[in-house]
């Protein structure tokens, strides 16, 4: 049964739009997933300006998971990673005690083309929020896949449907990419207490309710959810075990409000390492909001 349907809210990032789904005012998280942005779809012409790129910015207390349907992104971070993210690959960056990174569209700037994907944030569990930052990249041939009856499924991260992905997650979760032909049927079992499905493309019926592109359904626990594609559709399944209350502010997620304020101060004072010297050209750096003021 569906507990809540969330419509994406379009947000302009200064050159392209994303559809923000999580956090939502009445549903901040689904399992450990605390942020969910649908990037594009957008078509770029060659030579578009560099201000479209995402400048260096910091994170603490979370892992970022970038997954593309189309396009290419150049990732750089402060632990020395530099990698091209391509469709079907998994880009997993764990911030822990603090990391900075940038995301550039260098290939698209040179050649033009479409960009379409999802970026999610996964909150780190208690006891893991301050681990050392790290990065891993997983090509599509590492991903467990399944195909039958008009359904193509890929396990992006975590464990689900009897399979395990190689992405080094820190708490029980699942993240699955479904491609469904019109008329295809599938089920999401009651394996985890918190589950959701986001329709990136197309239209499906889930638990007896029609969901359109740009909508996320959050399901009640305890029963298998049946799906039928009403047209060719792309659906992302996500969820897992909850990690406990978290503060979510700017680019930071943490169980401690004081720790977030410290991270904001560190970034403002330029005490956090940037990805590399080449990224210095993106200054002035994005500024976090000022410290929260007590209510009088």
Automatic annotation (TrEMBL):
Q: Which InterPro entries does the annotation name?
A: Pirin (IPR012093), Pirin_C_dom (IPR008778), Pirin_N_dom (IPR003829), RmlC-like_jellyroll (IPR014710), RmlC_Cupin_sf (IPR011051)
The protein's superkingdom reads Bacteria
Which SUPFAM superfamilies does this chain map to? RmlC-like cupins
Q: Which residues form the Pirin C-terminal domain?
A: 175-272
Q: Which Pfam families match?
A: Pirin (PF02678), Pirin_C (PF05726)
Pro residues bias locations = 285-296
Q: Report the residue ranges that make up the Pirin N-terminal domain in this protein.
A: 16-122
Q: What ranges does the record give for the region Disordered, renumbered to this chain?
A: 271-296
Q: Family per UniProt? A: Belongs to the pirin family.
Name of the protein this chain belongs to: Redox-sensitive bicupin YhaK (Pirin superfamily)
Q: Which organism is it from?
A: Caulobacter rhizosphaerae
């Amino acid at each position: 049964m569906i507990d809540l349907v969330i419509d994406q809210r379009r947000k302009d990032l200064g050159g392209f739009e994303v559809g923000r789904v999580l956090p939502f005012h009445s549903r901040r998280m689904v399992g450990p997933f605390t942020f969910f942005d649908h990037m594009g779809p957008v078509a770029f012409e060659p030579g578009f300006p560099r201000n479209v790129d995402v400048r260096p910015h910091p994170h603490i207390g979370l892992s970022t998971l970038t997954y593309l349907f189309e396009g290419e992104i150049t990732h750089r971070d402060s632990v020395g990673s530099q990698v091209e993210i391509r469709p079907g690959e998994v880009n997993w960056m764990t911030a822990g005690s603090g990391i900075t990174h940038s995301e550039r569209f260098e290939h698209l700037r040179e050649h033009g083309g479409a960009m379409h994907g999802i970026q999610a944030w996964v909150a780190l569990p208690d006891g893991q929020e301050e681990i050392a930052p790290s990065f891993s990249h997983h090509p599509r041939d590492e991903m467990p896949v399944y195909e039958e009856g008009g359904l193509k499924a890929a396990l992006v991260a975590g464990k689900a449907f009897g399979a395990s992905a190689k992405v080094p997650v820190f708490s029980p979760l699942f993240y699955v990419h479904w491609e469904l032909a019109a008329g295809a049927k599938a089920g999401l079992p009651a394996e985890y207490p918190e589950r959701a499905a986001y329709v990136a493309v197309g239209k499906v019926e889930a638990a007896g309710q029609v969901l359109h592109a740009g909508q996320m359904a959050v399901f009640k626990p305890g029963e298998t959810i049946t799906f039928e594609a009403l047209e060719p559709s792309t659906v992302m399944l996500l969820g897992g075990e909850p990690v406990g209350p978290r503060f979510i502010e700017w680019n930071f997620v943490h169980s401690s409000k004081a720790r977030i304020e410290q991270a904001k101060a560190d970034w403002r004072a330029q005490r956090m390492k940037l990805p590399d010297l080449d990224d210095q050209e993106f200054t002035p750096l994005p500024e976090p909001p000022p410290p929260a003021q007590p209510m009088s």
